[in-house]
Write a structure and sequence with these properties.
The protein starts with 11 loop residues before the first helix and ends with a helix. It is built from 15 helices and 9 strands. Helix 3 packs across helix 5, helix 3 packs across helix 13 and helix 13 packs across helix 14. The longest helix has 29 residues. Strands 3-2-1-4-5-9-8-7-6 form a 9-stranded mixed beta sheet, with helices on both faces. The protein has 423 residues and is an alpha+beta fold.
Length: 423
Amino acid sequence: MASIGPDARGVKYQAALDRHLSKDLIDQQARDCGHRWRERALGPTMTVYLWIMQMLLCNLSMEGVRHLSQKAVTAAAICQAKARLPLQLLVRLNELLLAQIDDGKPQPTWHGHRLLAGDGVCYYTPDTPPLRKKFGSKKPFGFPLLKVVTLFDLASGAMLRQISLPHKRQESPVLGRLLRWARLGDVAVLDRAYPAFSNLCEARRRGVELITRLKKNLFARAGTRRTVIKKLGKGDLLVLWRKPKERPKLMGRRAWKILPAQLTLRQISLTLKRRGWRTRHITVLTTLIGREAYPAADITAVYGRRWEVETNFRHLKTTLNLEHLRSETLAGVERELVVRSLAYNLVCLTMRQAARLLKVDSLRISFADTLHFLVLGSATLSMEVIKINPQRPGRFEPRRLKRQNKNYLPLNCSRADARKKAG
């Protein structure tokens, strides 16, 4: 058994790794991927374990990671071992972890549908020429900015899929790639970046239902290609969307030609009132057109859960401190994104197991406390000690910071030029 950390056999994360991603499992998956390696201090299992633990320990530095191995290895040797890992191996391990989260047992559903949610998030990468050329940056001397479109399962919080893009690329054209990991009958909740005619057609082709927010210029109006067919209730309209005359630049001619000439959809307007928040009037579009089967109140309520995606991003960027990637190559960035998903989903799997033990919804389990349980708890500690977040529906906090940022000037030139100016 590969063990990491001080007295690792008695630490909770080692028990979790051995149970869910055992050495035999990792070695077998590596062989199935065609990976060949020599027996050395940093084999596939040890490297995967160290990388996951680096993520769980809030993006620990490489100099810190080398002390987890209990062997005389250098930070450079660990980086080389990471580069040897096939991307396909990491993807397979993540799929196996997702299968354990699902595990075939009944899960909370909405009207019999599994709820998914997707959105884009940006991470910083090291400032190397290949990464700057691929992803670009907002400022001439800022770090390269990577946009990652991510799909989550709202029942468990698990991260199902990530697609990396340059930060200036729009998210909407990659929705079809994201929906490949959805199942027949799933409902995807999205923000207003996604309601394009081609995306609606792609979702229908894959048997996935969409609930997405609409921009004002896409409302159904007389004299446009989006017209009202019937009024179903207050703020509830059955609408017809016709195919645009112009083909999107990123869509092939053959794919554009087979799209239907029109789609029947449902447009629902609602007013959201919440203590501490400004009153908002929003309009959502959905492919769920049955008024009796899917009341407007239920659809608007499930759209309100889209904010859970932002909470998941906060777990990644703040709780796990993963806003900055460490890999300096394009291939390394792709591997690191999958390992982030592995570490995040390991916490979600533990939360799900704790929820079953404590007989509560998995969303009530504290992500931060589950992380501390894995990293700091002993192997004999029961999941019953994991914190359950109280239900506080009326809670709100002012959007103000008490801890102010340090008053340092931004770096608007290269470090070499800055040193000359300071000297």
